[in-house]
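W.,

You were right to be curious about this one. When I first looked at the sequence I had no strong expectations either way, so I just let the prediction run and decided to look at it fresh. Below is the sequence, 252 residues in total, followed by the output.
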Amino acid sequence: MIVYEQPLNEITRILLKIEYLLQMCEHHLKHSESWDSHTLLIAICDILNLLDRPDLRSKLTKEIQRYLTTLRRLQHSPDINKSKLEQLLTRLDACWQNLLSGNGRLAQGLRDDDFLNGIRQHLKNPAGTCSFDIPIYHLWCEQPTTFRMNMVETWYRRLDNIKELIYLVLDLIRDSGHFKKSTAKSGVFQMTMDPFLPCQLIRVSLPSDKLIFPEISAGRHRLCIYFMVADFASRPTQSSETWEFNLALCVI
């Protein structure tokens, strides 16, 4: 099965993009070729670009505080695993405290790295890290594996607090929605949304052996999912068939 996800607010969208880049980093950390170090460095720079918003710290702080308030209301519920809930609250509170204790933009330590900053500036241009544009980077790529890997691992460890926050919040959002069997007639599924319970993430699960994928359009009041037939040689077209799929609406 393939799970397709559609974020419905800006914070969730940013977190999903950073999660994607973190997973890319983790893949290339397992390999030691210079091209792996290069791709990992680009991913770290992309993460910094996503974290550049000056108001992101305050928005994340308010969002996590909201999660803490919501989850604390469940502490006296008889159906809740209290031990698991306490662990979750402890981790969320630690993320919240880290956000409160910092100043300025997130991952400031990486922004202060002169070598990384120089690479980041050149990445704004196509093929900006070409050897004649930035020879010091060309030299770095030719250094022994241990030297390069020590540097990239140090950069990546500076994202530890960000990683914990992102993986925890996205797990929490995803776990808030449960997949239910749904049917799309003539390639379209529509439903009314509750505007008083704003959804953060739409998840659609489909078999991976079918050349079909969803295009998700959602607002506060309505959700529409169009099932498209994949054609890798031309533009996709909307299916006219009936499709069974699993749908999860994630709301905290």
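Here's what jumped out at me. The radius of gyration is 21 Å. And, maybe more interesting for your project: The mean pLDDT is 92.

Coffee later to discuss?

I.
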